């Protein structure tokens, strides 16, 4: 029982501000996944302890009527993931992360949540598979999908059994030798299928799994699914009747560094015929100009339809995302290797809706689905009937907080997981008539979050710099938890990354605005040109304009604060901070007039020298945002280069740059720091050799927060600077 624990003790202790340590040691919860009858939902729970220096985890059960939370009894050390068994009330199929026969393998077990200790081992799998999805067929046989790395010959790769090569050389003849935080090897991810035969006590048919990507044609990019680095089981699906599968893979005839394009492949589960791309070259979708990245292939409950989304541009990663649905025609035609799936009645849904949905959940009657999409600085839910016409503009079903997950219950209600600046998690049901029933609220339960609430958040709109643009710019304002109306607080101005991204009313374990505000600042977090969630035009107009409109929007936002919010915000002792594109922007600010308005700057993994931008591997990004490759005419690499304005640099600057950041290599942070030092500008350099673009480990994150806050508090408030830095 976790519910209603701790709040009284925390309030009694007078806690009214959240510290970095509290942020990092507070529980983290996944979105609840309801059982087939919609009575209970399973979710993951984990918590880091600084005392023990370790994380504890659990699988917890949420009662969807009462909100009561109990431990499920599934041992989270052993159970990596669990899915409900369709057709049952409380049956589960789960992956046990150990395998007594095959080192590095896993096992599949059938169990029941009402008897968690009485599960049955049904299959031994010879590699570290994950991403389980299951269908219960009419015969009662179970068909499932999982994924893992595979050798070029299609066999699953088990690192524990692979021989160690005698040398460490990595030889490449194709562009894209590494991505995000990983150097490419010969192995690629693949989706594997297996069947558990009811008549044999759910034994694994053929004692093996089939690699579904085998046989897919390519001449440039080898098929891979899930798409790395962020793809998971959302990149593939199995129809509820078990007959059909679908997966996502990048365009096989385009190279991965220049293009974002990816297609949805479909195939018949019991056929050896190779899966076919339903929206690849030659398809109706492709010919109509929809050629970019695809996602979220999701079968309807009646198995007759597949919904997915796709962008138009084949190298623009932030192009508008559009929704599609096709009819699935089982046994549509026969190849030499068996029957294949054909698709028909391909149709765009809400094609003129100016938002970019990010997930799809079907209604039980297969006549509509729900999506989530960014909308005015939060992620909201929307409902899309298949019968809607082209001009249909979905209305938001949710309002204030940001949705992190939705699932549909048998009565068409939603179970929603959401968060906000003031809470790490809220679970509620949302009835078709709009009634919300809150089942769980982390701020009422978690000691570390005690005292947080919506009272610290404000928003304002101001006139930005874009000509011929009819919207105002948006900005968040986050006050300290113990805000007093008789005090002013220095400004912490925080610029978001992307640049196609947003500062949203959402909880973050990395840039948590409440934690920054509770150092005694008012955080102002603007959404300048380039931001997402306000319509595609605002997003698109940053192209070729990195230091242009967004910079002037940031200046105008700062002037708005100075001129209108001075009763509680002190801009004279303000600081500016940003990561990624936000880091680029802080470097641009350092070289321009706005840089003189801050006591110090904090830059996390940001570009300082745009002329070296080709050290990244996401060349599609440079090609789009800088108007071509580095050698082309009329690009903007030199136009918006922070290192062309070094003469103006003079504000103390804290530089973070991590070694595993292959997207923005650490050389940019090092040259930035070397220039600051050589010019005699007070500066520090913080590096994590084991972190990528993000700082994810709790102890590293605590050090990151401690040193950054020490820096801003010194320059803004005159506190002592610590002596933790490594000297000469
Ligand atoms: C859970 O599994 C771990 C690892 O096998 C074991 O050490 C631990 O005792 C188990 N916990 C319970 C409550 O059974
Ligand atoms: C599959 O669904 C049927 C009902 O459609 C049910 O009787 C059967 O128990 C389910 N299979 C498993 C393994 O739970
Ligand atoms: C996981 O598998 C191990 C054997 O590899 C077994 O001892 C343990 O009981 C299993 N745990 C669960 C929860 O299935
Ligand atoms: C595939 O390649 C791996 C690594 O070379 C090898 O161990 C495995 O036996 C091969 N599988 C088949 C079916 O040839
Ligand atoms: C099992 O093997 C047989 C013979 O190779 C093949 O026809 C069948 O499709 C396989 N079944 C599965 C589920 O892999
Ligand atoms: C790959 O195939 C496509 C047609 O599908 C063709 O346009 C392209 O030139 C081919 N590329 C290479 C490198 O062979
Ligand atoms: C049948 O499968 C084989 C082996 O995967 C493949 O080479 C061949 O192209 C396939 N033929 C058809 C018509 O799909
Ligand atoms: C939709 O969003 C608006 C703000 O844009 C909000 O006022 C309204 O309450 C939301 N609708 C629902 C049903 O939450
Ligand atoms: C809305 O639906 C729920 C059940 O889904 C019901 O309990 C509630 O009374 C309904 N509210 C209104 C205002 O109709
Ligand atoms: C602010 O100052 C006024 C006048 O001095 C005082 O009445 C009020 O209590 C103060 N408010 C707070 C929150 O301290
Ligand atoms: C990548 O795109 C650029 C244009 O930005 C083009 O010049 C180059 O040939 C492409 N490279 C490959 C390998 O397709
Ligand atoms: C570059 O800009 C000049 C001046 O506008 C124009 O004449 C030229 O065609 C452009 N070059 C390219 C490759 O677009």
Automatic annotation (TrEMBL):
It is found in: Secreted. Its main location: secreted. PROSITE patterns: PROKAR_LIPOPROTEIN. InterPro entries: 6-blade_b-propeller_TolB-like (IPR011042), AB_hydrolase_fold (IPR029058), Peptidase_S9_cat (IPR001375). SUPFAM superfamilies: alpha/beta-Hydrolases (SSF53474), DPP6 N-terminal domain-like (SSF82171). Keywords: Glycoprotein, Hydrolase, Protease, Secreted, Serine protease, Signal. One of its GO terms (biological process) is proteolysis. Residues 507-718 form the Peptidase S9 prolyl oligopeptidase catalytic domain. Residues 1-17 form the signal peptide. One of its GO terms (cellular component) is extracellular region. One of its GO terms (molecular function) is serine-type endopeptidase activity. It holds the Pfam family Peptidase_S9. Belongs to the peptidase S9C family. PANTHER family: DIPEPTIDYL-PEPTIDASE 5-RELATED (PTHR42776:SF11), SERINE PEPTIDASE S9 FAMILY MEMBER (PTHR42776). This is Dipeptidyl-peptidase V. It comes from Bimuria novae-zelandiae CBS 107.79.
């Amino acid at each position: 029982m976790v519910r209603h624990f701790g709040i009284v003790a925390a309030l009694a202790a007078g806690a009214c501000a959240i510290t970095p340590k509290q942020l990092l040691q507070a529980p983290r919860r996944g979105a609840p996944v309801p059982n087939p009858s919609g009575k209970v939902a399973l979710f993951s729970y984990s918590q880091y302890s600084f005392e023990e220096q370790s994380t504890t985890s659990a699988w917890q059960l949420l009662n969807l009527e009462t909100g009561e939370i109990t431990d499920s009894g599934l041992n989270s050390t052993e159970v990596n993931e669990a899915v409900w068994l369709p057709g049952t009330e409380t049956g589960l199929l789960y992956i046990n992360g150990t395998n007594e026969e095959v080192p590095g393998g896993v096992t599949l077990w059938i169990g029941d949540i009402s008897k968690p200790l009485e599960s049955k081992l049904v299959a031994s799998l010879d590699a570290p598979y994950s991403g389980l999805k299951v269908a219960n067929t009419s015969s009662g046989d179970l068909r499932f999908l999982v994924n893992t790395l595979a050798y070029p010959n299609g066999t699953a790769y088990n690192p524990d059994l692979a021989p160690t090569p005698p040398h460490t050389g990595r030889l490449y003849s194709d562009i894209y030798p590494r991505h995000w935080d990983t150097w490419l090897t010969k192995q690629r991810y693949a989706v594997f299928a297996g069947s558990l035969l009811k008549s044999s006590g759910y034994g694994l048919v053929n004692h093996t799994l089939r690699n579904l990507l085998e046989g897919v044609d390519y001449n440039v990019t080898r098929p891979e699914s899930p798409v790395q680095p962020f793809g998971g089981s959302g990149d593939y699906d199995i129809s509820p009747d078990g007959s059909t599968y679908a997966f996502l893979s990048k365009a096989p005839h385009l190279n991965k560094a220049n293009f974002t394009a990816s297609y949805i492949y479909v195939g018949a589960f019991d056929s050896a015929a190779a899966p076919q791309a339903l929206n690849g070259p030659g398809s109706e979708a492709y010919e109509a100009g929809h050629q970019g990245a695809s996602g979220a292939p999701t079968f309807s409950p009646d198995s007759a339809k597949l919904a997915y989304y796709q962008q138009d541009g084949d190298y623009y990663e932030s192009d508008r995302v559009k929704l599609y649905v096709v009819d699935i025609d089982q046994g549509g035609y026969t190849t030499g290797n068996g029957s294949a799936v054909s698709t028909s009645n391909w149709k765009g849904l809400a094609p003129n809706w100016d938002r970019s949905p990010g997930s799809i959940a079907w209604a039980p009657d297969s006549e509509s689905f729900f999506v989530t999409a960014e909308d005015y600085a939060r992620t909201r839910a929307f409902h899309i009937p298949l019968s809607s016409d082209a001009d249909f503009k979905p209305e938001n079903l949710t309002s204030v907080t940001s949705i992190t997950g939705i699932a549909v219950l048998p009565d068409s209600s939603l179970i929603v997981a959401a968060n906000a600046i003031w809470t790490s998690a809220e679970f509620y049901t949302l009835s078709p008539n709009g009634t919300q029933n809150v089942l769980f609220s982390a701020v009422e339960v978690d000691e570390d979050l005690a005292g947080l609430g919506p009272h610290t958040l404000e928003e304002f709109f101001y006139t930005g710099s874009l000509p011929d643009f009819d919207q105002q710019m948006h900005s968040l304002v986050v006050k300290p938890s113990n805000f007093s109306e008789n005090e002013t607080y220095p400004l912490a101005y925080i610029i978001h990354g992307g640049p196609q991204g947003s500062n949203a009313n959402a909880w973050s374990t990395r840039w948590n605005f409440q934690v920054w505000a509770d150092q005694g600042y008012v955080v102002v977090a603007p959404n300048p040109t380039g931001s997402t969630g306000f319509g595609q035009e605002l997003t698109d107009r940053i192209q070729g304009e990195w230091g242009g409109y967004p910079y002037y929007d940031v200046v105008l936002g700062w002037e708005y604060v100075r001129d209108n919010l001075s009763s509680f915000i002190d801009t004279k002792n303000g600081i500016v901070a940003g990561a990624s594109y936000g880091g680029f922007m802080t470097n641009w600010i350092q070289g321009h007039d706005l840089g003189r308005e801050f006591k110090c700057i904090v830059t996390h993994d940001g570009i300082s020298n745009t002329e070296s931008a080709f050290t990244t591997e996401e060349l599609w990004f440079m090609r789009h945002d800088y108007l071509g490759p580095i050698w082309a005419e009329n690009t903007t690499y030199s136009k918006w280069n922070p290192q062309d304005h070094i003469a103006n640099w003079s504000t103390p600057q804290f530089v973070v740059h991590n070694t595993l950041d292959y997207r923005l290599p650490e050389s940019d942070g090092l040259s930035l720091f070397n220039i600051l030092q050589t010019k005699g500008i007070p500066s520090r350099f913080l590096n994590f050799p084991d972190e990528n673009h993000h700082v994810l480990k709790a102890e590293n994150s605590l050090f990151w927060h401690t040193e950054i806050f020490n820096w801003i508090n010194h320059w803004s408030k005159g506190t002592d600077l610590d002596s933790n830095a490594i000297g000469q």
